[in-house]
Amino acid sequence: MDLYLYDTKSRKKRLFVPIDPAHVTIYVCGPTVYDRVHIGNGLSAVVFDVLVRLLRALYPRVTYVRNITDIEDKIIAAAQANNEPWQELTERFTATFHDDMRALYVLEPDVEPKPTQLVDEIVQMIDTLITRGFAYEADGHVLFAVSADPNYGTLSRRTIEEMLDGARVEVAPYKRDPKDFVLWKPSSSDQPGWESPWGIGRPGWHIECSTMIRIHLGSNIDIHGAGTDLIFPHNENELAQGTAVEDGAKYVNYWLHNGMLNMGGQKMAKSVGNIVSIADLRERFPGEVIRYALLTGHYRQSLLWSDQLLQQASQSVASLYRALRHARDISGEEELTAKSFQSAPLTQFPEEVLNPLVNDLHTPKALAGLHSLAKKIQSTSASEDIIRLRDQFLAGAWLLGLFNVPVKDYFQREDEEIESSTIEDLIQSRNEARRNKDFTRADEIRDFLASKGIELEDTRNGTRWSRR
Q: How far apart are CA 264 and CA 304, in angstroms?
């Protein structure tokens, strides 16, 4: 089956042709662990988790590498502000990151490298770049000479002026050119540092990823994933390093970038002060609901993030679980979860979900495909047919990373209690949907409330509700 992905470098959707059809390689930029990860990090993790699941359904072997940046200036600053050793800070936030990923049902990568584990290899790569004429030493720093790379800027397609004004481009007196970027920087006595030919110091951020890719996946990989905020300068600098270190190295064949979350008209950013952590959201919504909400937008587009989106996602997840409960009640079979279908043959995945995903990961249409299968389940009473539809549904759900708990566990969660004010808001939304003749939406809200133990009664004087 053909897979099409939008390649940032070529600015077009391309047929995916792996370097080796028997072994696909993918690298995704992971978090810098100096704080709890926010929901924007969760978006990237979930998007590329779906891609990896899809690749594993299409190809016999996939190696997925997602790094953790455990040495960077932000880490040093956070540790000093907390008055704690930087190693303890990174270990603590690495553990919380893993906890958040498990809650969102993000599969573990095959390899999760850290720069501090590969300092010798980073030093060796920097030394190679110096020998090949792409880097130079100055005042204890080693910098990449951008002018030595005639293709610099082809990924981000920025002008020289845009490059100089870009984020994290530091103008310093020791640079030959303001666009040159740091590969190695000196460390003071109160900063972490390692021995190198250029003195005690630490690697720059960009060289870390290039080295980890080269060590774990080789000089040329199939797919590199990241958020659009990393296109420049991080991914641009990665590309320059990755192609300069060896003749003929292309570094990456397909660059994929997910869009940003939008919070009330503003991009989520620490500088704006509108960061929402995954941990905070998990106190109010199940991880599966958060994951569903993240998949409601196409990965390359900006997604408007709000409580309303999460409430709608909660209703949608509940309505789909009700379809699975119907299948269980009709078939009388033991409950299954999507995990049962992680190794299913390609033919078992439903076209309603698979076709949108192979067309540049169109998760909103794939979710619509799940709802279409759920409606078929709800309208079916024959045990044999309902088992077939249920299996298709769960196989499709596996690709999306959804429906990971048994039906009985979902409906018996202790946190199912819903506040009266939320019930009133949902009833108002249902009434509005009915006035607009959006009966599908109205039914979703009714089903969601029913799953929470709320019964509705439509009367001449309005809609009444009561708890079962």
A: 7
Contacts of 230 (CB under 8 A, 6+ apart): 29, 257
pTM for the model stands at 0.87
Binned at pLDDT 50, 70 and 90, residue 4 comes out as very high
Structure tokens at 219: 């000089």
Rg of the Cα trace of the chain? Answer: 25
How far apart are alpha carbons 226 and 434 in whole angstroms? Answer: 41
pLDDT per position as a tens digit, 424-460? 888 989 999 999 988 888 988 988 888 777 888 888 8
Task: Specify the pLDDT at position 414.
Answer: 39
- Please tell me the distance from the alpha carbon of residue 344 to that of residue 325, in angstroms, as a whole number: 22
Express as a percent the part of the chain with pLDDT over 90. Answer: 78
C-alpha to C-alpha distances, 292 to 47, 140, 403, nearest whole angstrom: 11, 48, 10
Sign of CA dihedral 75, 77, 79, 81: negative
Distance (Å, rounded) from C-alpha 416 to C-alpha 452?
Answer: 6
Dist CA 229 CA 236 (whole Å)? 11
Q: DSSP labels for 375-440?
A: HHHHT---HHHHHHHHHHHHHHHHHHT---S-HHHHHT-GGG---HHHHHHHHHHHHHHHHTT-HH
Residue in 173, 198, 202, 184 with CA at minimum distance from that of residue 144: 184
Q: In whole angstroms, what is the distance from residue 204 CA to residue 182 CA?
A: 6
Specify the pLDDT at position 415. Answer: 43
User: What is the rounded (10 degree) CA torsion for 96, 100, 103, 109?
Assistant: -100
Task: Show the tokens assigned to 331.
Answer: 């078939």
Spell out the SS3 assignment of 410-422.
HHCCHHHCCCHHH
Give the closest residue to 115 by CA, choosing from 96, 132, 94. 94
Alpha-carbon gap, residue 30 to 441, rounded angstroms: 37
pLDDT classification of 468: cutoffs 50, 70, 90: low
| pLDDT tens string 114-136 | 999 999 999 999 999 999 999 99
Provide the CA 320 distance to its chain's centre, in angstroms. 23
Is the distance from CB of 52 to CB of 64 less than 8 angstroms?
yes
> HSE-up of 211 (CA within 13 Å, CB side)?
26
